[in-house]
Amino acid sequence: MTVIQHDADIVEFGPQPPVATVGQTAGDEMEVDKADAADADADDALTGEFTWVIEGFSKNKQAKLYSPVFQSGQYNWRILLFPGGNNVQQLSVYLDVADSATLPQGWTRHAHFTLTVHNQKEPSRNVIKDADHQFNVRACDWGFREFVTLAELKDTSSGFMVDDKLMVSAKVRVEPQVNWWSWDSKKETGFVGLKNQGATCYMNSLLQSLTHIPYFRKAVYHMPTTDTEDPEASIPLALQRIFYKLQYADSSVSTKQLTKSFGWDTYDTFMQHDVQELNRVLVDKLEEKMKDTSVAGTMAHLFRGTFTNYVKCINVQDVSLRDEVFYDLQIPVKGCKDMYASFDEYVKEETLDGDNQYQSERFGKQDAKKGVAFKALPPVLELHLRRFEYDFSTDQMVKINERFEFPTTLDLDRGERKYFTADSDPNVVNKYRLHSVLVHSGGPNGGHYYAFVRPLTSEQWYRFDDERVTKAKEKEAVEAQFGGTEQQQHPGHTPQWKLPKISNAYMLVYVRESAIPEINVDVSGDDISQHLRRTLEKEQEEKARKKKERLEAHLYTVARVATATDLATEIGSDRFFDLVTHDKVHAIRIKKELTLLALKQEIWRLTGALPAQQRLWLWAKRQNHTYRPDRPLQLDCDDHTAMMDVKEDTTAQQNNKFQQELRLYLEVVGTPPAGPPPADAPVPEDEGYPQLPTNQILLFLKFYEPAGEALSFVGTHIASHTDTLTDLLPVLRRAKGLPASQQLCVYEEVEFETSVRFELLSEHRSLKDAELQSGDIIVFQCALPVAAPTSMAVEPAAGAASSDVPEHEPLLQIPQ
Q1: 202 pLDDT band (50/70/90 cuts)?
Q2: How confident is the model at residue 785 (pLDDT cuts 50, 70, 90)?
Q3: H/E stretch holding 163
Q4: Closest to 405 (Cα-Cα) out of 365, 440, 446, 437
Q5: Which end of the chain has less Cβ packing within 10 Å, N or C?
Q6: Which contacts of 461-466 are long-range, i.e. CB under 8 A and separated by 24 or more positions?
């Protein structure tokens, strides 16, 4: 189902229009039907209906229109209409929670609703779309951006507007007693659902039906796969992963790897495909992949049947026979009362006479009988109901919503085996048990799929609706999906209106009763390859760990401590500007009740730097979008400060992380450690931290090699505000191991996001005058020969006046 949420930023709230009540005009009608508590099949949902008649529609100049408020389930609703389309050339229609601005914080409600744009000349051409949605403060309106093209709407002959009057109606069913946000399908039913990627509900329905055929699931598990395969490129491996998770997971399962293995991109997942087409593609691909394996022939064994096409001459002895295999059957719905009438129609003989005589190879033109009969039916019989047909009179696809009954037990041996050929096996009893019902809800232009499945060893039906799995009564799974019409009475109107039920069965799966013992095999962990089980168990453990971290996040501080080693590893390989990627830095998870000293001890375990050597710098985001160490943490906290009192960085949550982080840079003062201490080394208890003298700053040093275009991190330096470039030059040479006579070009790395910007440092200006501060980056390189083309400025030679030194253009000339 293609459902598009209307942007919340254009929803208006103001004085609420009056609530529609029974007895108002046709434009303000509303009806609430309360379920009869005495009816065992009734639920607690309340249904409201409302028809909105918009007079002078073409004269409207507003970008959007709201209907009067109507009620359903004691909730206030209204229809939201975009007469000129919501950024499309189509009429856009949504259902809106009328009083969402005044509802209490955290409100939510689940509703199934149908929106209809009426064709006032031909009701059979009404455009009907329905959806299920969990309305909340962030999604208070939901509906369809594309309903009827504006060109068709304005065409007076189309019937959508009569006398400049448009009719739009809504039917809403609210289920207020169930909190679907906290619904646990596994706990309530023992099964889990599949996540919808946008419009993949049809695939989810088919997969749920197939996974409840144990023989099929076991065969998929036994398809040869390896741990080196990519599930996004291997249909068998992707399907194995889905079946495993459906069997063992506690929450809904993603199908992204499977759709990618089909070669689909994001656009394809938002395009609704046909479930029959998908079924055939999936069976064909699996059959091909199963060749020359231990499970070869499984698809044919389960799903393949054979029918015979025959042409029998009436007046002479001549018969033409041609066998054909099938994996599913398309059976007619239109004009057929039930399943048996449909099979009667399927095998109905056709007389070839007159201009349509049969051309016999032996006798020439002859009157003949043409038909089809089944030679063998498969153990798993998949029947696709022909609900969609092409209407030549309207030149468009239409959905056949008429009533079509199907039994829970299908006896195809009835009528003295009239559906079979004379040479079919009489020992096979073709009595079938209804296994699953795939439902399509909507019209020919789109809709929603879900499935009802009855496991082979149970009489309990389950509804699989994407992520949600619920128990269902047989009446809901079977009789309610026959289609047909339902009676609806609008206030002030008689007689009752009969409108088509747009939710009805589209595909049925039957299993031969005599084959159930063979098909209902036990599927255990032994059927799953070790590499798959090992991989998925690790993924599950990692998922459980992350879930535990989320639940305990308020008890811990996550500290990401960058070191000189981290900077040296990244700069010049993965990173060229700024300093480090924080997600690649080791994270320390420490309880908030512990002190800063405990954090320093954990840093000692990782690096070997004693607590008294550690100067920890807080990071800050600057106006030029750079992210640099800004000030020592110890200026605000001492070793006895509790971690809960150390201010965390909000940048992590801005990057969609569920928890804030404390981001630090470790400056080791004194003798660098040789490495992490032994595991049994005693924990140092020394307190204190290196003091940073007043007016001193921390600079980061990078070296650039033009010949190889190589960049590297060479260390840090504590400098005084009064230092000049002349004072820094010996430090830079020592950091890179250059001779004292080596001339250098020195720059400050200023920014890189909006534009790459480096500024040449002046020789005689102090660092304070140059506006350098802690966290700034100095980039230097060896000066190129004067005669050679260069893009750098050369450092003055010792003792020479700056005016005697030729000037050279920097890498990027920046006015200073």
Answers
A1: confident
A2: low
A3: none
A4: 437
A5: C
A6: 462/189, 462/191, 464/191, 464/193, 464/194, 464/204, 464/205, 464/208, 465/132, 465/193, 465/201, 466/193, 466/194, 466/195, 466/196, 466/201, 466/204, 466/252
Place of tokens 């955290």: 106
Which is catalytic among the residues 110, 112, 118, 201? Answer: 201
- Residue indicated by tokens 């006015």: 815
336 is catalytic: no
If you write DSSP's letter for every residue of 564-580 in order, what string do you get?
HHHHHHHBTTTBSSSS-
Tokens of 25: 């005009």
* Tokens read off for 207: 């997969």
Cβ neighbors of 206 (< 8 A, separation 6 or more) are 275, 278, 279, 282, 438, 451, 507
Residue 560 has φ and ψ, to the nearest 5°, of -105, 110
pLDDT band at 539 (very low <50, low <70, confident <90, very high): confident
**CA 72 → CA 103, 383, 503, distances in Å?**
16, 37, 20
> What dihedral angle (degrees, nearest 10) is formed by the CA atoms of 337, 338, 344, 348?
40
Confidence of residue 139 (pLDDT cuts 50, 70, 90): confident
More confident of the two residues 461 and 394: 461
Going by pLDDT thresholds of 50, 70 and 90, the confidence category of residue 699 is very high
CB atoms within 10 A of CB 342: 22
**E runs forming strands in 121-193:** 127-136, 141-149, 161-162, 165-174
The DSSP 8-state label assigned to residue 785 in this structure reads: P
Query: Does residue 12 surpass a pLDDT of 50?
Result: no
Q: Using alpha carbons, list the distances in angstroms from residue 649 to 17, 209, 619.
A: 46, 48, 8
Lowest mean pLDDT among 338-342, 448-452, 759-763: 759-763
Question: Looking at the predicted structure, is the pLDDT value of residue 789 above 50?
Answer: no
313 is catalytic: no
Q: What's the token pair of residue 295?
A: 């499970």
Whole-angstrom Cα distance, residue 472 to residue 477?
A: 7
Q: Which two tokens stand for residue 563?
A: 């070191």
Determine the average pLDDT of the residues in 266-295: 77
Q: Is the pLDDT of residue 657 over 70?
A: no
Q: Look up residue 107 and give its two tokens.
A: 């409100």
The one catalytic residue among 301, 435, 448, 582: 448
CB 582 within 8 A of CB 560: yes
Mean pLDDT value of segment 299-312: 94
**Per-residue pLDDT, 260:** 86
